Protein backbone atom coordinates (compact mmCIF):
# COMPACT_ATOMS: atom_id res chain seq x y z
CA UNK A 1 0.00 0.00 0.00
CA UNK A 2 3.04 2.31 -0.12
CA UNK A 3 1.76 3.80 -3.37
CA UNK A 4 -1.19 5.36 -1.54
CA UNK A 5 1.10 7.71 0.32
CA UNK A 6 2.50 9.14 -2.91
CA UNK A 7 -0.88 9.40 -4.60
CA UNK A 8 -0.65 13.18 -4.78
CA UNK A 9 2.46 12.77 -6.91
CA UNK A 10 0.85 10.23 -9.25
CA UNK A 11 -1.07 10.98 -12.43
CA UNK A 12 -4.63 9.65 -12.53
CA UNK A 13 -4.11 8.23 -9.04
CA UNK A 14 -7.74 7.30 -8.39
CA UNK A 15 -7.55 4.68 -11.14
CA UNK A 16 -3.89 3.81 -11.54
CA UNK A 17 -3.05 3.28 -7.87
CA UNK A 18 -5.71 0.61 -7.18
CA UNK A 19 -4.69 -1.20 -10.35
CA UNK A 20 -1.03 -1.09 -9.38
CA UNK A 21 -1.80 -2.34 -5.88
CA UNK A 22 -3.84 -5.28 -7.14
CA UNK A 23 -1.31 -6.23 -9.80
CA UNK A 24 1.57 -6.06 -7.32
CA UNK A 25 -0.40 -8.06 -4.73
CA UNK A 26 -1.18 -10.83 -7.23
CA UNK A 27 2.32 -10.99 -8.70
CA UNK A 28 4.08 -10.80 -5.34
CA UNK A 29 1.70 -13.38 -3.91
CA UNK A 30 2.39 -15.87 -6.70
CA UNK A 31 6.14 -15.30 -6.67
CA UNK A 32 6.21 -15.32 -2.87
CA UNK A 33 4.47 -18.68 -2.61
CA UNK A 34 6.75 -20.15 -5.29
CA UNK A 35 9.82 -18.84 -3.47
CA UNK A 36 8.54 -20.14 -0.12
CA UNK A 37 7.94 -23.64 -1.49
CA UNK A 38 11.37 -23.70 -3.12
CA UNK A 39 13.03 -22.44 0.04
CA UNK A 40 11.29 -25.02 2.22
CA UNK A 41 12.45 -27.83 -0.06
CA UNK A 42 16.02 -26.60 0.43
CA UNK A 43 15.77 -27.20 4.19
CA UNK A 44 16.93 -30.79 4.32
CA UNK A 45 17.89 -30.80 8.00
CA UNK A 46 15.71 -28.56 10.17
CA UNK A 47 17.73 -29.03 13.34
CA UNK A 48 21.13 -28.39 11.80
CA UNK A 49 20.23 -25.65 9.33
CA UNK A 50 17.69 -23.70 11.37
CA UNK A 51 17.54 -24.62 15.06
CA UNK A 52 21.30 -25.04 15.49
CA UNK A 53 22.49 -22.70 12.76
CA UNK A 54 26.13 -21.65 12.94
CA UNK A 55 25.20 -18.04 12.21
CA UNK A 56 22.61 -15.76 13.78
CA UNK A 57 20.65 -15.91 10.52
CA UNK A 58 19.58 -19.44 9.52
CA UNK A 59 18.96 -18.30 5.94
CA UNK A 60 22.73 -18.01 5.49
CA UNK A 61 23.23 -21.61 6.61
CA UNK A 62 20.47 -22.78 4.27
CA UNK A 63 21.93 -20.95 1.29
CA UNK A 64 25.38 -22.33 2.05
CA UNK A 65 24.06 -25.88 2.32
CA UNK A 66 22.53 -25.47 -1.14
CA UNK A 67 25.38 -23.71 -2.93
CA UNK A 68 28.27 -25.41 -1.08
CA UNK A 69 30.18 -22.23 -1.83
CA UNK A 70 31.03 -19.28 0.39
CA UNK A 71 31.28 -17.01 -2.65
CA UNK A 72 27.88 -18.10 -3.93
CA UNK A 73 26.36 -17.64 -0.48
CA UNK A 74 27.83 -14.15 -0.21
CA UNK A 75 26.37 -13.22 -3.60
CA UNK A 76 22.88 -14.45 -2.67
CA UNK A 77 22.99 -12.79 0.75
CA UNK A 78 24.17 -9.56 -0.89
CA UNK A 79 21.13 -9.68 -3.15
CA UNK A 80 18.88 -10.07 -0.12
CA UNK A 81 20.57 -7.12 1.59
CA UNK A 82 20.13 -5.03 -1.55
CA UNK A 83 16.44 -5.93 -1.79
CA UNK A 84 15.97 -5.05 1.87
CA UNK A 85 17.69 -1.73 1.27
CA UNK A 86 15.40 -0.93 -1.66
CA UNK A 87 12.40 -1.91 0.43
CA UNK A 88 13.55 0.34 3.27
CA UNK A 89 13.93 3.26 0.87
CA UNK A 90 10.36 2.77 -0.28
CA UNK A 91 9.10 2.55 3.29
CA UNK A 92 10.93 5.73 4.31
CA UNK A 93 9.56 7.59 1.28
CA UNK A 94 6.01 6.40 1.98
CA UNK A 95 6.34 7.25 5.68
CA UNK A 96 7.68 10.71 4.90
CA UNK A 97 4.71 11.46 2.65
CA UNK A 98 2.33 10.22 5.31
CA UNK A 99 4.00 12.37 7.95
CA UNK A 100 3.96 15.34 5.59
CA UNK A 101 0.23 14.93 4.89
CA UNK A 102 -0.52 14.68 8.59
CA UNK A 103 1.62 17.72 9.38
CA UNK A 104 -0.08 19.63 6.57
CA UNK A 105 -3.30 19.12 8.54
CA UNK A 106 -1.45 20.27 11.69
CA UNK A 107 -1.87 16.85 13.24
CA UNK A 108 1.64 16.39 14.69
CA UNK A 109 3.97 18.51 16.81
CA UNK A 110 6.21 20.91 14.87
CA UNK A 111 3.89 20.71 11.87
CA UNK A 112 4.96 24.14 10.65
CA UNK A 113 8.49 22.87 10.06
CA UNK A 114 7.73 19.35 8.91
CA UNK A 115 5.21 20.32 6.22
CA UNK A 116 7.64 22.58 4.35
CA UNK A 117 8.24 21.44 0.77
CA UNK A 118 11.69 22.06 -0.65
CA UNK A 119 11.48 24.59 -3.51
CA UNK A 120 14.49 22.95 -5.14
CA UNK A 121 13.57 19.27 -4.92
CA UNK A 122 9.78 19.71 -4.88
CA UNK A 123 9.45 17.12 -2.11
CA UNK A 124 8.99 17.40 1.69
CA UNK A 125 12.64 17.11 2.65
CA UNK A 126 12.07 17.96 6.33
CA UNK A 127 9.58 15.13 6.65
CA UNK A 128 12.03 12.82 4.92
CA UNK A 129 14.81 13.83 7.30
CA UNK A 130 12.60 13.21 10.33
CA UNK A 131 11.58 9.73 9.15
CA UNK A 132 15.15 8.83 8.29
CA UNK A 133 16.46 10.05 11.65
CA UNK A 134 13.80 8.15 13.58
CA UNK A 135 14.56 5.00 11.60
CA UNK A 136 18.27 5.27 12.37
CA UNK A 137 17.66 5.91 16.07
CA UNK A 138 15.24 3.01 16.44
CA UNK A 139 17.53 0.67 14.51
CA UNK A 140 20.47 1.64 16.71
CA UNK A 141 18.69 0.13 19.72
CA UNK A 142 19.58 -3.27 18.30
CA UNK A 143 23.21 -2.62 19.25
CA UNK A 144 22.24 -2.25 22.89
CA UNK A 145 19.42 -4.72 23.35
CA UNK A 146 17.89 -7.32 21.05
CA UNK A 147 14.78 -7.37 23.20
CA UNK A 148 14.29 -3.60 22.94
CA UNK A 149 14.58 -3.77 19.17
CA UNK A 150 12.13 -6.67 19.01
CA UNK A 151 9.63 -4.71 21.09
CA UNK A 152 9.96 -1.71 18.76
CA UNK A 153 9.32 -3.94 15.75
CA UNK A 154 6.30 -5.50 17.45
CA UNK A 155 4.86 -2.10 18.38
CA UNK A 156 5.30 -0.73 14.86
CA UNK A 157 3.70 -3.86 13.45
CA UNK A 158 0.80 -3.55 15.91
CA UNK A 159 0.19 0.10 15.03
CA UNK A 160 0.32 -0.69 11.33
CA UNK A 161 -2.24 -3.48 11.67
CA UNK A 162 -4.35 -1.32 13.98
CA UNK A 163 -4.48 1.50 11.42
CA UNK A 164 -5.52 -0.93 8.68
CA UNK A 165 -8.20 -2.36 10.96
CA UNK A 166 -9.68 1.09 11.56
CA UNK A 167 -9.69 1.98 7.85
CA UNK A 168 -11.16 -1.29 6.61
CA UNK A 169 -13.49 -1.53 9.60
CA UNK A 170 -15.05 1.85 8.82
CA UNK A 171 -15.68 0.80 5.22
CA UNK A 172 -17.15 -2.52 6.34
CA UNK A 173 -19.40 -0.74 8.82
CA UNK A 174 -20.77 1.50 6.08
CA UNK A 175 -21.47 -1.58 3.96
CA UNK A 176 -23.32 -3.27 6.82
CA UNK A 177 -25.40 -0.15 7.44
CA UNK A 178 -26.22 0.12 3.76
CA UNK A 179 -24.71 3.59 3.54
CA UNK A 180 -23.37 4.72 0.16
CA UNK A 181 -19.61 4.75 -0.24
CA UNK A 182 -17.72 7.70 -1.62
CA UNK A 183 -17.61 8.02 -5.42
CA UNK A 184 -14.73 6.01 -6.87
CA UNK A 185 -13.40 5.02 -10.26
CA UNK A 186 -12.22 1.58 -9.22
CA UNK A 187 -14.15 -0.89 -7.09
CA UNK A 188 -13.95 -4.48 -5.86
CA UNK A 189 -17.61 -4.84 -6.74
CA UNK A 190 -19.65 -7.53 -5.02
CA UNK A 191 -16.48 -9.11 -3.64
CA UNK A 192 -15.61 -6.02 -1.62
CA UNK A 193 -17.47 -7.07 1.51
CA UNK A 194 -15.98 -10.58 1.53
CA UNK A 195 -12.48 -9.22 1.02
CA UNK A 196 -13.07 -6.75 3.85
CA UNK A 197 -14.11 -9.59 6.18
CA UNK A 198 -11.08 -11.72 5.30
CA UNK A 199 -8.79 -8.72 5.75
CA UNK A 200 -10.25 -7.85 9.13
CA UNK A 201 -9.95 -11.44 10.35
CA UNK A 202 -6.29 -11.56 9.36
CA UNK A 203 -5.58 -8.11 10.82
CA UNK A 204 -7.15 -8.91 14.18
CA UNK A 205 -5.20 -12.17 14.38
CA UNK A 206 -1.93 -10.46 13.49
CA UNK A 207 -2.62 -7.65 15.94
CA UNK A 208 -3.11 -10.10 18.80
CA UNK A 209 0.02 -12.07 17.93
CA UNK A 210 2.05 -8.84 17.94
CA UNK A 211 1.85 -8.85 21.73
CA UNK A 212 2.73 -12.50 22.29
CA UNK A 213 5.91 -13.19 24.29
CA UNK A 214 9.07 -14.36 22.57
CA UNK A 215 8.95 -17.68 24.45
CA UNK A 216 6.36 -19.57 26.55
CA UNK A 217 6.19 -18.63 30.20
CA UNK A 218 8.68 -20.76 32.10
CA UNK A 219 7.96 -19.61 35.64
CA UNK A 220 11.51 -18.40 36.21
CA UNK A 221 12.32 -14.83 37.18
CA UNK A 222 14.59 -14.44 34.16
CA UNK A 223 11.67 -14.96 31.79
CA UNK A 224 10.34 -11.46 32.44
CA UNK A 225 13.69 -9.98 31.42
CA UNK A 226 14.52 -12.15 28.42
CA UNK A 227 11.24 -13.32 26.90
CA UNK A 228 8.38 -11.10 28.08
CA UNK A 229 6.82 -8.84 25.45
CA UNK A 230 6.18 -5.33 26.73
CA UNK A 231 4.85 -4.09 23.40
CA UNK A 232 1.30 -3.85 24.69
CA UNK A 233 2.33 -1.43 27.44
CA UNK A 234 4.16 0.79 24.97
CA UNK A 235 1.19 0.58 22.61
CA UNK A 236 -1.18 1.81 25.32
CA UNK A 237 1.19 4.59 26.38
CA UNK A 238 1.52 5.81 22.78
CA UNK A 239 -2.26 5.75 22.30
CA UNK A 240 -2.73 7.66 25.54
CA UNK A 241 -0.14 10.26 24.50
CA UNK A 242 -1.87 10.73 21.14
CA UNK A 243 -5.21 11.10 22.90
CA UNK A 244 -3.84 13.73 25.26
CA UNK A 245 -2.26 15.70 22.41
CA UNK A 246 -5.25 15.71 20.06
CA UNK A 247 -8.14 16.00 22.48
CA UNK A 248 -6.82 17.61 25.64
CA UNK A 249 -4.01 19.94 24.63
CA UNK A 250 -5.02 23.23 22.94
CA UNK A 251 -2.39 23.04 20.20
CA UNK A 252 -3.68 19.66 19.08
CA UNK A 253 -7.42 20.19 19.35
CA UNK A 254 -7.57 23.68 17.86
CA UNK A 255 -5.05 23.35 15.04
CA UNK A 256 -5.76 19.92 13.59
CA UNK A 257 -8.04 19.99 10.54
CA UNK A 258 -9.26 16.51 9.53
CA UNK A 259 -9.31 15.94 5.75
CA UNK A 260 -13.00 15.07 5.88
CA UNK A 261 -13.75 18.67 6.90
CA UNK A 262 -11.97 19.94 3.80
CA UNK A 263 -13.91 17.51 1.61
CA UNK A 264 -17.22 18.60 3.10
CA UNK A 265 -16.33 22.26 2.65
CA UNK A 266 -15.41 21.67 -0.99
CA UNK A 267 -18.68 19.82 -1.57
CA UNK A 268 -20.62 22.63 0.08
CA UNK A 269 -19.10 25.25 -2.23
CA UNK A 270 -19.27 23.13 -5.39
Automatic annotation (TrEMBL):
UniProt cross-references to Gene3D superfamilies, sorted A to Z: Amino acid/polyamine transporter I (1.20.1740.10)
UniProt cross-references to InterPro entries, sorted A to Z: AA/rel_permease1
GO CC annotations, alphabetized: membrane
Record membrane topology: Multi-pass membrane protein
UniProt entry tagged with the keyword Ribosomal protein: no
Pfam families: AA_permease_2 (PF13520)
PANTHER family reported for this sequence: AMINO-ACID PERMEASE BAT1, TRANSPORTER, PUTATIVE (EUROFUNG)-RELATED
Keyword annotations from UniProtKB, A to Z: Membrane, Transmembrane, Transmembrane helix, Transport
Coiled coil: none
GO MF annotation terms: transmembrane transporter activity
Spans traversing the lipid bilayer: 25-46, 75-94, 123-141, 147-173, 194-215, 227-247
Compartments, record wording: Membrane
Protein name: Amino acid permease/ SLC12A domain-containing protein
Amino acid sequence: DAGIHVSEETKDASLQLPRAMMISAVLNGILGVAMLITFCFCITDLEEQVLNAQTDYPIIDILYSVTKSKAGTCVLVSLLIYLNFIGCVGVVVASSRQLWAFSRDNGVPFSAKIKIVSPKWKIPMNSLYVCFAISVILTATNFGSDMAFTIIVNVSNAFSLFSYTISIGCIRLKRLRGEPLLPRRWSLGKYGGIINDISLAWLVLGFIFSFFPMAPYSGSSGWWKESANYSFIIFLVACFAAFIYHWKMPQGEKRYVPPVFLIRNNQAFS
